């Protein structure tokens, strides 16, 4: 099974954000806090983001056990989380 | 009764802008020709835009579902500010409004709910005035059915059969008709009887009341009556007396208050006074400077407006939440409760979200749960009568406030209150509650918030609590619902079983306790760990890092207290 590398995952996560937040996400730095940077990134938008990432990579997030507010707070952290989950699934 | 407690509020201030207050402030500035006095219109636009959902509609607060009320207020205010009412989502606000249309010609506040005249008014104004679309031809049949036997207009055709006429319903229906027709074409009601009924609401003092039998003239009723008569090409029987009564509501600072003897100027009083004086053709020039100064002092740091100077702008939900979370020492809690008790004003015997606004069902439950009127049997009796006699809908359910179509949240809240305060007089209204709940059952044991809605955990548990209060104790559907929505790692989800949230988890524990069902304390503790925040509060979901505000903090704290060895009972709240 092909496992994506970190840069490819980052690009795909950024595409997910661009679909939801448009231009505001276009030049997003990888380490900035999404709730501070993206207008309207409230709990509903965060849920939509996590769900869209799940759909994009075919993974299932554990909303209680996985500390989602940490892993989905920046682009970099999301990419790392996804990378590990994809690797786990491939193992 | 005096309202001195309201002068220097001992309630709790949220600091947030309010949608209706923002609409009323901007509309009043616009009517006065003083919109350019607004120092930061971009802040207002930003606040309003933050209320838009991805379905194109707008919601009262972030995270809530879209409704016709919020959608009209937001799009109209954006239009007053010359902002783009189509926003980033194009014309989909109009598409959202159409999603709440019924085949009978009326509109619902949310899709699937029964039509009412509030929602129909907002929908028609949004479609015609903002999006330049035409309402359905069947609208006029629906409006025609609103005339009651006494000649006035009611909240819905079903209300009209029961004979409940109200000045607000007259204004909303007449404005929907005149907006749709440009004031031309046949009037769908008996003009003379409607005109007479409206004129009869004026008292000898010059002001108006909402309904026959109300004792206190009110600026809001006066505004709606004057405008309704204006739509008919009529005027009050005593127009000079009406103008004098309105001007007598001015305080020394040049701001308006709503009732004789009510000391607090607020945004709605300014809105109503200016709107009524415009309809009466009375001059406003000498009032404008004082009103503009007052209105601008109601702005909040969030960008919009609240109802009075922000440092005093307490509200009942925030205040009751802080009391129930134990945030106050005893003496301050007593003062806060006393402040909430003073939010019951003339003509409507429920508690208001903000004093001067209409009484609301959920807020009344939250205030009672926080201790309001605990030792005042008369007041509790008035609340029971308000629920059972004044605002219960013909379908047996309750809406957020008088005339609003029924929903499960409000119906459950009303059932809890009638159980608490009503005694034997609540038996008949509670039978009506059971009838409404049955219309929301989408599959055996599964319920939606409104008759045409999707089933959710919260609506199901609220339905079963309401039925329990009505005398039907059957825990099996609760057991099934809790199993269906239990999230493996901790907490409960409103839809499905993957994303837990604080409100659904609170409802789950509350219902389990109410039906005597065992539940897993470790499962709850894990969930609370996932929503506890570094600022000593609670988030609505594990996704957010900061507190969801006083209401979330209250629910989280009460769940923590439930886990202590004392096993503190959860207040029987309903929120959404």
Description:
The complex is a heterodimer of chains A (91) and B (576). With 91 residues, chain A is mostly helical. The model of chain A has no long low-confidence stretch (mean pLDDT 89). In chain A, helix 1 (6-21) crosses helix 5. Chain A has one domain (6-90): Orthogonal Bundle (Non-ribosomal Peptide Synthetase Peptidyl Carrier Protein, Chain A), CATH 1.10.1200.10. Chain A has helices at 6-21, 34-37, 43-57, 68-71, 75-90. Chain B has four domains: 1-15 and 315-373, no CATH class; 16-312, Glycosyltransferase (Alpha/alpha barrel), CATH 1.50.10.20; 376-443 and 450-455, no CATH class; 475-576, no CATH class. In chain B, helix 4 packs parallel to helix 6 (117-130). The interface between A and B is medium-sized, with 21 and 25 residues.
Quick description:
Chain A is mainly α and 91 residues long. Chain A has helices at residues 6-21, 34-37, 43-57, 68-71, 75-90.
